[in-house]
Amino acid sequence: MYDLLSNRDKMNLFEKKLQLFAKEVEILCALESGGKLEPREAYSKIKTSWKKLKVMKKDLLPKIENMPVESSEVIENPQSPV
Length: 82
Fold this sequence. Notes:
By secondary structure, this protein is mainly α. Helices cover 65% and strands 0% of the residues.
């Protein structure tokens, strides 16, 4: 399904879907906190979305494992936080 996309496009697509998942979780949590949604229903919706995201990740990531790392992404001497 994603074979025609470049590795960068695949990563961008996954990142967008991850952002949408995070936004959906935020909204569902707000609805549950406000009493507009039952906790079990919120959990069920989050779990369903997570499973969809996981399937997409599985479809995309094996295809980008060997993606070359750009030199700007390599950290030569990472500093540990003090």
